[in-house]
Amino acid sequence: MIQNHPYQQIKNALPTHAQLVAVSKLQPAEKIRELYQQGQRLFAENYVQEALQKQEELQDLTAIQWHLIGHLQKNKIKQILGRFYLIHSIDSIELLEALQKKLSEKNLNQKILLQVNLSQEETKGGFHPSDLKSVFENCKNWPSLQIIGLMTMPPLTSTPEESRHWFHELRKCRDQWQKMHPPLTELSMGTSGDWPVATEEGATLIRIGTQLFGARPAALK
Ligand SMILES: *Cc1c(COP(=O)(O)O)cnc(C)c1O
Question: pLDDT (tens digit, 9 = 90+) per residue, 102-128?
Fold first, then answer.
C-alpha cells in the first residue's frame, strides 16, 4: 500500500465520524476499480446515464456502494430505482412526490438526503431552510423514502473558512430537525478544497473528487 497516495492520506486524516465518498464523475471506470482495490467502497456519480454505464462495467465489484450526488431530473427516476444506496441531491417537494410514486409502484425504499441551499443562491438547487418545516411535517406522505440527513454545497468561490460558516449552519439545521425526525443523522458536506473544515463542523460524508482522481476530463456534452 502506497502511504503517500492522497487516498491513504485522506483516510488517515479522517475522524471516525466521517466517511469518504469518492466522487468519480467524468472519470473512467478503471480509476474506480483501482481505488476499490485499495479498499474504497463508497463512490458517487452526478449523471444518471454515466453512472448506470459504470455500474454495468463494474458489476464484479460486489461490495461497492453507489451514491448519486447530481441533480435528479424527474424523467430519470425510473432508471435509478434500486440503483443507488443513497441519493444526496433531493432538492424539491415535487421530486419527493415523484420519487415516492415510482418507488411504491415497485415496492422499493430509498435512502435520501435533502440538499439545502443555505446561501440561497438563485442559480443553485435545493431547499431553502424555511422549506424544511413542510418536508418534515409531511414525511408520512412519502413512506418509501427514508430521509437520513442533509447535504449542502457552499458558494463555489468560498475559501475553506468561508465554507465553515455554511457547514456550521447545516449542522445547526440538522440538529434542529433531528428533534422532530430522529433518523436525520447524516451531514454530507465538504469537497477537495474544504473537507478538513467540514469534518471539524461534523460532516459524516465528505465528497472528494479532484484530490483523489486528479483533474476531471471535460464533459462529453
Ligand atoms: C463534483 C462534485 C464534488 C467533488 O468536488 P471536488 O472538488 O472534485 O472534490 C462534490 N460534490 C458534488 C455535488 C459534486 O458535484
Answer: 999 999 999 999 999 999 888 888 999
